[in-house]
Amino acid sequence: MVWLLASATGLIVANLYYAQTLIGPISQATGLAAGAAGLIVTLTQIGYCLGLLFVVPLGDLLENRRLICLALLACAAALLAAASTSSASLFLFAAFCIGLTAVAAQILVPFAAHLSRPETRGQTVGTVMSGLLMGIMLARPIASLVADALGWHAIFILSAVATLALALLLRKRLPQRQPHAGLHYFALLGSLWHLLRDTPVLRRRAAYQACMFGAFSLFWTCVSLELTGPRFQLSQTGVAIFALVGVAGAIASPIAGRRADQGKSHSTTAAALLLGVAAFALPLLVHGSRLLELAVLVLASIVLDMGVSANLVTGQRALFALAAETRSRLNGLYIAIFFLGGAVGSSLGAWMFAQHGWQGVLWTGLAFPLSAFLIWLAAARD
Fold first, then answer.
1. d(Cα 84, Cα 30) in Å, to the nearest integer?
2. Which residue stretches of the chain have pLDDT < 70?
3. Is 266 exposed, middle or buried (0-12, 13-18, 19+ CB in 10 A)?
4. 372: how many CB neighbours lie within 10 A of its CB?
5. Which pLDDT score is estimated for 179?
6. CB 253 within 8 A of CB 274
7. What is the pLDDT, as a whole number, of residue 123?
């Protein structure tokens, strides 16, 4: 069941990232103006953030299996719409709906916590989150390779079929879970502010991960520009291979979860944040031949992914140790806040690359995990 949930979350969340490497051909096919091409990614992220705030809390109110399957059916329909349209406005609406419905992954994560025993909850969540992170990391190279072979429509069609099959599989395999929140929907939404205000663990953990995910988004937004530039001159296939190597960082998720189960969350958080610092410090400090600098970037990508995944799982383990009836809302708030950090990182990184080049990106990226570590030094243990 744990591996099913891990695979499912990875497959679902990958839908958020397929379009990121295909903005060029999608814009040409739909007639989207070059200046508006960024809306493809932006609207997907907006849909996801809104889903985290308005759909994920339903996991504390409605029967979870039915909610997950309905979201996946809607996601499959949105993917088919994106694959079949030649209208820019319809594609952008489909992108928004893909983001909105892909939050099914964040209903599955607290579902996994509910199914696990308290003494192994961190390890279970870590394994599930490693699947989610692999989905994030693999989506971009897979989309590039499929588009090269079959055209950009193919990845959306294949994902729609896979998402539909996943909905049917989860309908068959998942147990039913009816939560007992005791609130109606609008009271449930109103409680989000109270949870944020009254849960210091949530605020601290969200701040750590917002900084780490900001660094992650900044790095992966800009590294392809650097790799295809005059210094390294890699092809898109070379960039895809580079991204695939970075997937190795996902191994940190179950390790971090196991350490959190052993009561070592505080030190694991420090290690994760310092890995983020090291990921940007390495290419700033190590200079040499083209091959050496490329190897350093590969190592930095793995180290950064390890830090981000370890910190993510440790944070969720801390939140899922709180009241079971608020887990979906806590998870939704946590993910929404750090996704905002990711949006800041990606937009800031693109601007820094245009204005100050790769060195400017690295110094900006270093500031994110370093800020998180300073917050950790000042924070109470959690």
1. 10
2. 34-38, 181-182, 236, 380-382
3. middle
4. 28
5. 77
6. no
7. 75
CA atoms within 13 A on the CB side of 223: 28
Query: Residue 287 to residues 17, 282, 307, 327, 359: CA-CA distances in angstroms?
Result: 32, 9, 23, 46, 12
Of 249, 237, 221, the C-alpha closest to 368 is 221
Domain 2-378 listed as CATH 1.25.10.10: no
pTM of the model: 0.78
Amino acid at 79: L
* Identity of the residue numbered 279: A
How far CA 156 is from CA of 45, 98, 324, 358, in Å, comes to: 17, 10, 36, 32
| Of residues 65, 316, 278, 35, the one with CA closest to residue 175 | 65
Nearest to 382 by CA among 315, 308, 313, 309: 315
Residue 164 burial class via C-beta count within 10 angstroms: exposed 0-12, middle 13-18, buried 19 and up: middle
55-95: pLDDT as tens digits: 988 888 888 899 999 999 999 999 999 999 889 899 999 99
CA distance 260 to 247: 22
Angle among Cα 370, 376, 380 to the nearest 5 degrees reads: 170
Cβ atoms of residues 169 and 47 within 8 Å: no
Note the Cα 304 to chain centre separation in Å.
14
| Nearest alpha carbon to residue 311 among 192, 207, 196 | 207
Distance CA 158, CA 165 (A): 11
CB burial class (10 A; 0-12, 13-18, 19+) of residue 191? middle
Query: Positive or negative, the Cα torsion across 57, 62, 63, 65?
Result: negative
Amino acid at 34: A
How does pLDDT run across 284-334, given as a tens digit for each residue?
998 888 899 999 999 999 999 899 988 988 888 888 788 777 777 887 888
